[in-house]
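Because discrete structure vocabularies remain unfamiliar, we first show an illustrative case, written as a sequence plus integers encoding its fold.
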Amino acid sequence: MNKNKRQAYAVNIHAGKKAVASSWGTGRAVARIPRVGGSGTSRSGQGAYGNMCRGGRMFAPTKIWRKWHKKINSTQKRYAVASALAATAVPALVMARGHVVDEVPEIPLVLENAVENTRKTSQAKDILAAVGAIEDVDKAANSKQIRAGKGKMRNRRYTLRRGPLVIYASNDGVEKAFRNLPGVELCCVDRLNLLQLAPGGHMGRFCIWSKAAFEKLEEIYGDDGKRIPLASMMNADVARIINSDEVQSVVRAAKLPNKKYTPKANPLRSIEALEKLDPYRAEARRAESRALAERIKNKEATLAKKRKAKADRQKYKAAGKAYFEKVSQQGDVCAEGFAIE
């Protein structure tokens, strides 16, 4: 529904097409995009018109005959307004929407008809301060800041949170009195606006009613007025209905949940599962595990003993080799000389 106030926009139909260009055709080893004619300038021979070309048009140029607006059924809009009105009477929804209503005596807030005769903004501020609604106006005023993006250059320079919505039956000056307050909006009860009752699709707008406007709702949505959605339940306390004696006496007893079985253990991996099947095999596996642990525990001592024995053998062998080499040496008979007799 918020799209129905959009204005059409499109690019110029001649944008990117003002150059005089034609394709060179095939056989020249270049793309068949239209190219600017002539010579003696850098522009000649450049591609034109295409969205991939410099100075060309955009892809799929926007048109003003796009479908800008969204048709909504009248009954659907009427039901939405009725639902948004009901949400304004729920304090939890009003506070969840961000309104500051801690000092407000009641929700919905209904004031005397004299509020419609207010003509000065100073009087309007006094009225809001008297009923504790001025804090919500201050919250909206303090939220004013410059918009991010290009909207600030398009007459949408500032953003502002929503404040109270003043609903009246007859405009005897109330419009001029409240319209200058930041965040405050006004609406006639005969022309209730869904975009004001639920801005951004979030229901729970803080509404200030005049007595005449509040009483006129009975005329608008009464027996002879507009049709509104019927309540799905007269009593919304579902837990109380289900647990009542009338309902519990006819319903079936609660079903017990299915018994959950523990997953079956694999006896090849679990000794406990193996013990249930074969206690002797389980004890043998435990003994094997103990022996393995003992071997791991004594591994260092065993290796040290073996290394020492090997070193002793190598030492003994080396001594034997040295002795054998010594006794095997051949002496020189002429080393000390000899005499022939």
User: Anything to note?
Assistant: The longest helix spans residues 299-327. Strands lie at 21-22, 35-36, 109-111, 145-146, 158-159, 165-168, 185-188, 207-210.
